[in-house]
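Appendix B.2, paired examples.
Example (i):
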Amino acid sequence: MRSSRVFFHTVALSAIMTAGSLGATAAHAADKISIMVGGYEKQIYLPAKLAEGLGYFKEQGLNVELLNEPAGVDAENEMLAGAVQGVVGFYDHCIDLQGKGKFVESVVQFSQAPGEVELVSAKHPEIKSPADFKGKNLGVTGLGSSTNFLTQYLAVKAGLKLGEFTSVPVGAGQTFIAAMQQDAIQAGMTTEPTISRLLKTGEAKTLIDMRTMAGTKAVLGGTYPAASLYMSADWVDAHKEEVQKLANAFVKTLHFINTHSAAEIADKMPKDFYVGDKEGYVKALENGKAMFTPDGVMPEDGPKTVLAVLSEFSKNVQGKSIDLSKTYTTEFVKNAK
C-alpha cells in the first residue's frame, strides 16, 4: 500500500513539474513586447502597422503590442518609465535624451527625411517665410516633440528668438485641422495624410516641404534620419534575440515598401487610416514613400545633420559632448534575415 502511495505521489509530482515547465515555456513564448507609436495613422510611421498587417511579427514568433500615442514626446516618456519597451518615433529624441544623460538608440531606421510640412493657414497670407512666425501661434504635435524641434530650428535660423513665437500642442489629424480652422494656430507642422487633407480643401498652403530628400537637404542642410524604432540601450543589450527578431520583421517590411506600389501598400493598411479618401492617401504615399530606407540602416551622414539642427536652439545639447555612435546601432539590421 505504501509503495503504491509513493508511486502515485511521484507521478503526481512529476506531472506538476512537467505542467509547470510547459507553462513557463508558454509564458516565455508569449512575452509581450509593447511598442508605442507616435501616431500610427501617420504615413511617416507606416512600417509599424504594415509589419503587423503583413504578419511579420508573428512570423518571427513575436507577440508585439502596438500602442498609439499622438505625440512622440509622450511615447518617449512612456518608454523611459518602463511602460513600453520601444518607441516608433523620430531619431532626434536619441540625441536629445543623451544630452539629459539617458541612453537610447535607434535600432531600425525607417526614414531618411522627416516627411513633415510647415503649413500656413489660408487666412494668413502674410506668413511668407519662417521670419514671419514672430508673434504667431504655431501648431506642433506636442511640446518637446520632433515637430517642435524642427519648428524651433526654422524660426531660429530665420533670426527669431525662442520667445518670439508660441508652439501650441495640437496633435495631428482632426485636432490639427480644427486648430487651424479655428485660427488657434496660424501655421503648423504636420505629416500625411493631414497635409493632403488641408491642401485639398484650400484651407492651408505649403510653406516648407520636407517630404523628400531634396527638400530636406535644402532646408536642413543634409540627410535627416527621422522615423525609427528606438529603445533603451540597456534593454537592447539585455534582449538581443528579441531585438534581432524585431529588426528582421521591420527590414522585411521596408523591403516590401520599396518593392510595392503605394496602392498595394495602402491595401494592407487599416481602412480608417484613409479618413474617407483612399485616393488621396495613395497619392500622398506615392509622393512620399521614397523617404523610407530600403534596409533600416542609418544613413552615414544623417546623425551629424540632426545634431547640427538641435544644436541651433536646444539647451539639452548645446555645449554637451554627444557621442553619436551611442545614439544608433546597425548591428541588428545588418544581420537581418
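Example (ii):
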Amino acid sequence: KPRILLMGLRRSGKSSIQKVVFHKMSPNETLFLESTNKICREDVSNSSFVNFQIWDFPGQIDFFDPTFDYEMIFRGTGALIFVIDSQDDYMEALARLHLTVTRAYKVNPDINFEIFIHKVDGLSDDHKIETQRDIHQRANDDLADAGLEKIHLSFYLTSIYDHSIFEAFSKVVQKLIPQLPTLENLLNIFISNSGIEKAFLFDVVSKIYIATDSTPVDMQTYELCCDMIDVVIDISCIYGLKDDGTGTPYDKESMAIIKLNNTTVLYLKEVTKFLALVCFVREESFERKGLIDYNFHCFRKAIQEVFEVRMKVVRSRKHQSHMQKNKRPTPNGTPR
C-alpha cells in the first residue's frame, strides 16, 4: 500500500487533519485532542482506488535518533505531507521541512512532497496570499542553496473549518492513483456525451474526490458536492434503514437529485459501495435524463473493468512476491 506521512512541528494540526478527514470529527472537537507522542498508523481502504496507510508523526521526532529508522519509513512512502502553522512563526518549521525533505529525497526520490499551509481560517485573503508566497519562496530558496532545485514542492492553503482540507487531500491522493488518467478520460467522455457541466468521482466515506473531468475545479462547486453527499447519507440514515435498524445508508439503489435556484441540477448516483458520481447539469440538459442514465450505465461498467484490471495486477504482484520468497535458499543451501 502507498504510505502517506503526516509530519510537522508540534501543535501544527496534523492529528486534527486526520480526524476531520477520515473520522468525521467536528472541527471544534479537535481543540481537545492531545498532542501526538508516538507514530500512529492507520489503514484507509475505502475502495480499491482509495487504498493507503497514513502515518501521523509526533512533532518532536528526531531524525538523528539511532532508534529512528528513517530509511525504512521513507522507502515505502508515496507522499509526505508537511503541515506548517500559518498563524505561528514558521522559521523553525521551514528549517524542519528542509531537513525532512532532503533526508527523504536521498532515500526515495519518487516521494511527492506536499506542503499544507494550515490554519489559514484566521488570516485575511491578502495575508493568506502573502504567507503562501513567502513560504514558497523561502522553502525553494533553501533547496536551491543545497543544490536540490529538482525537488518539487506542492503548496496548499488549508483549514479544517472549510472544505479546503478535503480538496488538498484529494489532490494528494490522486497523485497516488496510477489509473487517474483513465478515470479522467472516462469522465471527459461521459460529460461530453451527456451535456453535463462538471462531474466528480467521490469517495463517499472521506469526501475525497479521486477524479474529476479536465475542466477547472471551482471551490464552490466542490463544496456543494460535499454538502450533497452529507445530505444524502444523513437522510438515508434516517429513512433508508429497515425497521430493525439493519441495512446500509449507501447502496446500489442510492440516487439523489437536488435542483438549485440558479437553473442548475445536482445529480448523485452510486458507482460502487464506496464511490459516488456527483454531476452538475443545466436544467435544460437534465431533461434528457434517459440519455444521462444510459451513459452513466456505460461509465459504471467501465469503472468496474478498471477495478478488475487493478485487482488482477495486485494479485499478480502478491503471487510474484510469494514465489520469490519461496525461491530463497534455506540455510543449508537448498531451495525451499
